[in-house]
Design goal:
The complex is a heterodimer of chains A (about 120) and B (about 120). Chain A is mainly alpha-helical. Chain A has six helices and no strands. The interface between A and B is large, with 94 and 95 residues.
Chain lengths: ~120, ~120
Amino acid sequence: MLKKRAALLSGAAAGVLNGFFGAGGGLVAVPALEKGGLSVKEAHATALALTASLSAVSALLYLGGGRFSFGEAAAFLPGGILGAAGGALLFRRLPSRLLQRALGAFMIYFALRVLLR
Amino acid sequence: MSDFLAAFLSGAAGAMGLGGGTVLILYLTACAGYDQPAAQGINLLFFLGCSVVSLILHGRGGYIRWKAAALCILAGLPAVLIGFWISGLLGPERLRDGFAVFLLILGLQQLFGRSKTEPHKQAA
């Protein structure tokens, strides 16, 4: 059973990131939930329920604040839903460690490009 | 890269637990000409749409611990307001720099951290 303190802390950390960066909540919630006693699958699924709820509120705040329009986001949904389904199906068949490292290198490259511009 | 391909790759990376949201935000700011706050907002709605399918599948599998999720959400909702408020105090440029630092940390974790698909070793 997950400790109450771990749940509250992971929720709060995910919430700040979600509101601040519009992403990244799951990346802190999953390891925190695992440390709190959930299995890997339970932590991923529970973090998804958390980040979906937080993203709904954040998206409303961003929309209300005029930071983007609904139409701009809707254009990306068909590709995203297909990609999510494909990613879920291929999850165990692709060399995930290699993909993870490639994505890590991609993130570092773009981060340094922004910071050193 | 087309919008469709970027969305497809982001959705796939997200489904594999590899931080798909960051991929789309990068594309939107670096290639599609959006400023950082707009890219973040688009990503939020994008993620919400993609997560519906995953939530249905995970819910059927019985993996969601709803009591734990409720506790997390309880703490997370006021924290969202704080994060949103702080992001509003920064201009798009400083928000983009902050995101770059966040991305650098994530990238180093992805490159040198443990595999996202390998379970933790359980204590006996």
